[in-house]
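Input.
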Amino acid sequence: MKKIYTRSILTFILLCSISGVIVAQDTVRVNLSEFIELSMERSGQVDYEKGEVSLAKNRSDKARSQRFFPRLELSTQHGVIPGVISRTDLPPGQWYLDPNLENDWEDWAIFTRAELTAIQPIFTWGAVSSAIQAAEAGARAAEYEFEGKRAEIELQYYELYFSYLLAEEISRILDDADNQLRQIENQLREMQEEGDPDLSEADIFKFEIFKSEFEVQKIEVEQSLRFVERVWQRALGNAEAIFEPAENFLDPVPFQIQPYEFYEERALNSRPELLGVDAGIEAVSKAVDAARAQNYPALVLGITGSYANTPNRPRQTNPFIINNTNFASGAVGLSIRQNLNFSSMRRDVERAQIEHQRVRDLRGAVGDGIILDLNERYREAIIAETRLKQTEEALSTARNWVRHEQLNYDIGFGDAEDLTDAIQQELETRLQLKQNVFDMNMRIAALYVSSGMPITQLSTN
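Output.
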C-alpha cells in the first residue's frame, strides 16, 4: 500500500530548471489549463528548446539574404604619406613623365583608399532558390520538433497538477480513517477493561501493528503533499501568492475512449514528429537539387569600384597611368563561373542523395514507432478504465462489509479482528480508487499526446 503514496509523487525531476524562493501571501486557485500555461511560460526547458527553433529560422533568414549580393565587401586603407616635387615645367597631371620626381618630406597629408566588390548571381540553375527552400523546410522541421517536445513537457505539468489533487485526496482519506481507528481503539480499550472474553491478545497486537503502519503512512502522505506544494510554487514562480488547484477532488477527466482507428488516423496526420520528418524530406530534396546545380556554369554580375585620395599628390591624366594614392575607377560586367572539380561535385550529389534516402527511411521508422507507442497507450487506457470501474465496485463492497461488521460489533456479535480487517480493506480500496483515477487521467493524457492531440482539450471543469 505504501507504493500508492510515492509512485506518482516522484516524477518531477523535470523541474530542475526552475528556481526561485516563494514567500506566500494570497491564495490563487488555478485550473488545469491555467496551470500548464503559467508553468510553460516560466519553464527553462521550453526556453531552451525554443532556441533551436530560433537558430533554424536564423539559418533560413541567412539563406534568403544570399539571394541578393551574397558577396558585398568594402575595404578601406588610411595612412600618412609625403607629397612629391617635380623640378620640370610639366603640369601636375603629367608628372609621371618626370624621371627625377622626388618625395617632398616637408609636405605630409592623409592618404585614404576604398575598394568595393560586389557579386550578384544572375542564373544558377536553381542553386540559390533550392538552398533557400531547403533552409525554410529545415526551419519548419525544427518547429515541428519543438511542438513534439512541448507536448511532452505539457504532459509532465499535467501529471504535476493531478499529483497535487491525489496528495490532497489521500490526506483526507487518511484523516477519515484516523477517526475510525480512534473509535475502534476506544472500543477495544473498554472491552479490555471490562474483561470481555471475545477480545483476545492477538486482536490487540494486530491492531497496534496496523496503527503503527498507519502513522508511518500519514507522515509519508503529509511530506508528499508538502513536496508537491513546494514544486507548484517553484513551477509558477510567484512569490506573492500561494497557488492551489481550482478543484477540491480528484475526479476522472470527462472522456470517452474512441475506437483505435480514430487515434491512429489522428496520429498519422497530426503527430509533429511525422510532420517534422516530412519537412526534413523536403529540405534534403532541395539540398539535392542545389548540389546538382553546382555541376553547371553559373552566370554572375560583378561590380568593382576603387577610390583613393591624397591632397598633396596630383591625379594623373593619362588613362594608362594610375597614381595609386589619388585615383577613381569602376567596372561592371558579367562572369561565368564553373567548378571544374567534377569528381568532388559528384560526391556531393551522392552524399545529398544518401541523406535524402536516410530521411525517407527515417519516416518509416518514426511512423512504426508512433504506431507501436499508440497501441501501447491505447491498451493502457483501456486497462486503466476497466481497473477504475472494478475498483469502484470493490469499494462499494468494502463499505458494505464495514457497515456489516460495525453493526455486528455494536450489538455484541462481531469480532474485533474482522472489523479491523474490514476497515483496513476499505481504506486500501479508497486509496487504490484515487490512485486509479490518477492513473486513468494520466493514461488518457498519454493517449492524447501519442495521437497528436493537445492535452489542454482535457478539461477538468
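The chain has two domains: 61-65+125-296+341-457, 69-123+299-337.
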